[in-house]
Amino acid sequence: MIMDAFPSEPYSDLSDDEVFARIAAARAALGDDALVLGHHYQTEAVVRFADLKGDSYELSKKAAESHARLIVFCGVHFMAEAADILTRPEQTVVMPDLEAGCPMADMASRGELESAWVQLAELGNPDDLFLPVTYINSRAEVKAFCGLHGGLICTSANAGKALTWALQRRPKVFFLPDQHLGRNTALAQGIPPAEITLWDPVLPLGGNSLAVLRQARILLWKGHCHVHTRFSTAQVRQARQAHPEAKVVVHPECPQEVVAASDAAGSTGFIVRYVEAAPPGSTIVIGTEINLITRLARQYRDRTILPLVSSMCPNMYKNSPRDLLHVLENPGRVNVVRVADEIREPARLALQRMLDL
């Protein structure tokens, strides 16, 4: 991926009110030529200026459908990469802060995946046996690998559909990079635990024997989200003791035992809809990134919305109103995200397979 970064303007001397006023003016001047996308995990100070809010799946679709010449993606780098892959050549994708990355996406590289494919050849032709499915929280080069090998992308909102699609085409699935989303999805699809195996990329054969790999239908890359692995069953028990009437809802990036101990699990979009549908007076304890929980609590004051524990994504937090002002006042000239053509086309194929589900 090529990312063009330029020094930001000296916005540090501006008051918050001045920053907000200039953002509004810059946004108004751009009109329909710009689309500002805000992920649910963004801070309120940034997401308040988003034209559209959503999870990674919803925003990927909106980016693909948009005719705006400038796409401002308030999220992390893999989201902006996906938007650049899906948009047309005359469109430009920018991020408020190019340093807003994703540690989980960086847990799997194309080189490591190609090494895994070479090792899996001991079982037979990997392209006959395994279909790669990568979570959208992954590098563009990993998405490209999946596209070249018949695979696709998924999000937490459509992981079940993606897994079904994959198993209809090949006997085994290689799911990466989030082991927890993969495990929770496979179990929800009725795959027995004995047929789900972890692949550690630093170990020969992923730390498995050939016999285990032959038995496995789902291989899970050893990756995780640091925001969602903070949640535990002890916290769920404590929440139920403190609020016996509460429903506990968590994200499927949480460990399987946390999902099993909860009342419901789903994507950020699912969590938003769950809260929307809850009757007034409900108490809902949520296990996901704290900015979304805080926003829901503010929006639905007739319901009690509580965090399972406060867990923040520091990379989402890197995007600030001053960063947003910088890209809006310099449209298409700073913080541009571009994916190289040799990566873009196979990655687009994998993303389009997701959008076609």
UniProtKB/TrEMBL annotation:
This is Quinolinate synthase. It is an enzyme of class 2 (transferase). One of its GO terms (molecular function) is 4 iron, 4 sulfur cluster binding. PANTHER family: QUINOLINATE SYNTHASE, CHLOROPLASTIC, QUINOLINATE SYNTHETASE A. GO terms for biological process: 'de novo' NAD+ biosynthetic process from L-aspartate. It comes from the Bacteria. The keyword rRNA-binding does not apply. Its cofactor is [4Fe-4S] cluster. Pathway: Cofactor biosynthesis; NAD(+) biosynthesis; quinolinate from iminoaspartate: step 1/1. Gene3D superfamilies: NadA-like. Keywords: 4Fe-4S, Iron, Iron-sulfur, Metal-binding, Pyridine nucleotide biosynthesis, Transferase. It comes from Candidatus Ozemobacter sibiricus. Its EC number is 2.5.1.72. One of its GO terms (cellular component) is cytosol.
